[in-house]
Design a protein that fits this description.
The protein is an alpha/beta fold. Helices cover about 35% and strands about 25% of the residues.
């Protein structure tokens, strides 16, 4: 279970660019819950992920994972048990290493072992089988350097790197936004399969509001560093995009301003 309590962060305090990115935010995510996150540009969505991963120290508040306070744990230590996939397909992988080397690296990182040990016949078979199950033809390209893969193929490798050993939390930050619609859909299918298979507690920021309402089992809307809406169950099932946007305007007295989300 992830418990975020009274989390606040203001950047560039005392300068003209001062900005409160997280404002006393509270969020509890139960084990196995798959939460989609939407919100206007600058709402604080990526900052929330940065806080959970340890990219900075919050000004106030705490982050607990499975009861353990990780608020001040170093980022590289959290990377052992928190998986993260970014929008940029270049970000999650080492471009000059092959697919199998990238997977081995992730595998040893999750086990805290030395790099190299994971690449043997047994692990290669495991990597090959895992890749084959995603039906992207990557199982036959295990020795190909990742730099030669398409964006969608790279995102699959990154997803697999994050989940070869099930993380305690999976964070997806618009991980399909840089892909063409058909590839994006394929990556979403693979994402759903992985989350289901490992029963992963997952947070997914998405630019696609329609997809947000049908993916996973809960949707939250962020605005000005806060969670302003939280839907699950029957209420979420019958919610339409139009109703959601109207609620946003009613609550914030602003039009929803995220161009990508409204496409
Ligand atoms: N390291 C930083 N230094 C200064 N300001 C920052 C930093 N990180 C985030 N911010 C500011 O905090 C606010 C929230 O940014 P964040 O990236 O979390 O938004 P977002 O909801 O992910 O938006 P988008 O939909 O555009 O990705 C923005 O105003 C941003 O400029
Ligand atoms: Mg963002």
């Amino acid at each position: 279970m992830l418990e975020i309590k009274n989390l606040s962060k203001t950047f560039l305090i005392g300068t003209p660019n001062e900005r409160t990115a997280l404002d006393n935010l509270n969020l509890t995510v139960k084990d196995g819950e798959f939460v989609t996150i939407i919100g206007s540009n600058g709402a604080g969505k990526s900052t929330l992920f940065n806080a959970v991963c340890g990219g900075f120290t919050p000004d106030e508040g705490s982050i607990l994972l499975d009861g353990k306070n990780i608020t001040y744990e170093q980022e590289h230590k959290r990377a052992h048990y928190i998986g993260r996939v970014f929008q940029d397909p270049m970000k999650g992988t080492a471009p000059d290493l092959s697919i199998e080397e990238n997977l081995a690296l992730a595998y040893t990182r999750a086990h805290s072992g030395p790099f190299g040990k994971a690449l043997n016949r047994k692990s290669r078979n495991f990597f090959r089988e895992s890749l084959a199950s995603y039906e992207m033809g990557l199982e036959d390209r295990m020795k190909t350097k990742v730099r030669f893969l398409s964006g969608g193929q790279r995102q699959v490798v990154t997803l697999l790197m994050c989940t070869l050993v099930a993380p305690r939390l999976l964070l997806l930050d618009e991980h399909t936004a840089a892909l063409d619609p058909a590839t994006g859909e394929k990556i979403m299918k693979i994402t759903n399969k992985i989350v289901k298979e490992h029963k992963l507690s997952t947070l997914m920021i998405t630019h696609n509001m329609k997809s947000a309402l049908v993916t996973g089992n809960r949707t939250i809307m962020m605005d000005s560093g806060k969670i302003i809406m939280d839907f699950s169950g029957a209420e979420r099932e019958k919610l339409t995009l139009e109703e959601l946007l109207k609620m946003y305007t009613d609550k914030t007295r602003r039009e929803f301003d995220n161009d990508r989300m409204l496409l």
